[in-house]
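To the wet lab folks,

You asked to see what we're planning to order before we commit. Fair enough. Below is the target structure as tokens, and below that is the sequence we designed to fit it. If anything looks off to you, flag it before the synthesis order goes out.
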């Protein structure tokens, strides 16, 4: 697993995000527009040519491989390509997770046409992905080390409608490197999907040791 600190300062990261996040929002809007457009074929053909030109322009300078998860100098992860929360990833729902003092995490999200499974309803895989992300984050943030999903059990209580949804997750217990977590998705009527996860802080993961060492160095330099 790759671990690297970014060369960018906090101001440079904020500046980059101020440009990139609106671009991601526009591409997300494009995806929705393509799904729901009813314009004529000639407009679609012209749109494709314009989009291809934009892609060619962006390919002018590309990072090899995936985005990865670089860390800021304060050791905050920057998972900008992440499938569920990536700030550069227009496929990711606009999920923004809030972490609370009691160790829980919540998110409010509006899922549109791009996340449909059954007609008018959220795709079950999307629900599982969002819950998986929230379970991973609630443990990783509250424990201070990255945790992987070992086992994820999802229960679909009733259909989840597209539109505004609330998510919540909390850690319910732990045994050594294993953390037991619960999460749910709710619409206005209450929970539609629940998930139980066993999240694991992997053994002998170089990134853990590296994080611990860097945290200790940062703490010492702050004294
Ligand atoms: C901020 C971050 C947000 C991230 C959000 C996204 C979350 C994700 O999607 S993560 C990606 C999906 N998950 C993966 O790819 C994980 C793949 N699996 C692995 O890497 C490893 O098998 C891993 C890390 C789960 C366990 O590896 P390792 O640390 O070697 O475990 P190991 O030493 O064998 O076992 C440790 C304990 O966990 C248990 N365990 C191991 N694997 C599992 C499992 N899959 N399910 C349940 N328990 C397990 C063992 O039984 C053992 O328990 P005990 O201590 O009671 O005997």
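Sequence we intend to order:
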């Amino acid at each position: 697993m790759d671990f690297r600190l970014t060369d960018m300062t906090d101001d440079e990261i904020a500046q980059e995000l101020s440009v990139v996040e609106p671009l991601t929002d526009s591409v997300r809007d494009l995806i929705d527009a393509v799904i729901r457009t009813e314009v004529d074929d000639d407009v679609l053909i012209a749109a494709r040519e314009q989009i291809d030109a934009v892609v060619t322009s962006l390919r002018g300078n590309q990072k090899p491989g995936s985005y990865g998860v670089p860390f800021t100098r304060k050791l905050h992860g920057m998972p900008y390509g992440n499938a569920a929360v990536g700030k550069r990833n227009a496929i990711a729902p606009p999920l923004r997770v809030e972490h609370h003092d009691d160790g829980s995490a919540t998110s409010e999200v509006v899922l549109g046409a791009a996340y449909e499974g059954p007609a008018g309803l959220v795709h079950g895989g999307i629900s599982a992905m969002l819950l998986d992300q929230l379970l991973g984050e609630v443990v990783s943030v509250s424990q201070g080390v990255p945790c992987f999903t070992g086992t994820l059990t999802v229960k679909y209580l009733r259909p989840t409608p597209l539109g505004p949804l609330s998510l919540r997750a909390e850690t319910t217990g732990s045994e050594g490197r294993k953390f037991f977590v619960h999460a749910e998705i709710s619409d206005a009527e209450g929970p539609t999907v629940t998930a139980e996860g066993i999240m694991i802080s992997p053994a002998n993961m170089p990134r853990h040791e590296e994080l611990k060492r860097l945290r200790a160095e940062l703490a010492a330099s702050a004294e």
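Structural context that might help your review: The first strand starts at residue 98 and ends at 99. The radius of gyration is 20 Å.

Thanks,
Computational group
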